Amino acid sequence: MATVEDLEARLRDGAWLLPGEVAKLLDVDRSTVIRAYLLPEPPKIRFRRRAGAGGYRECHPEDVRRELAARRQVHGDQ
After folding, report:
1. Both ends of the chain: CA-CA distance in Å?
2. Cα angle at 40 between 39 and 46, to 5 degrees?
3. Is residue 9's pLDDT more than 90?
4. Which of 21, 22, 66, 76 is the most exposed place for a label (fewest CB within 10 A)?
5. How high is the pLDDT of residue 39?
6. 61 versus 72: which is more confidently predicted?
7. What is the full DSSP assignment across 26-53?
8. What CA dihedral angle connects 61, 63, 68 and 69, to 10 degrees?
9. What is the mean pLDDT of residues 46-67?
10. What are the CB-based long-range contacts (under 8 Å, 24+) for 45-54?
11. How far apart are CA 62 and CA 12, in angstroms?
């Protein structure tokens, strides 16, 4: 299983991540990523369907980086 550091490196390289990988980065459950980020219209994190059997979702790296930065923001600093 990939570490957070591995996932962040892949994200910096522009890799599209699976919802479970995004969940690990955001420190939430995979179902939360799907329900709160991918299902709303419009989605908070854009995604594409992987070709072939299964049609797995892959999350847009730019949107994942934005959500990760927002979660790491320190509120109250001036």
Report:
1. 38
2. 70
3. yes
4. 76
5. 96
6. 61
7. HTS-HHHIIIIIISSSS-SS-EEEPSST
8. 110
9. 93
10. 48/16
11. 9
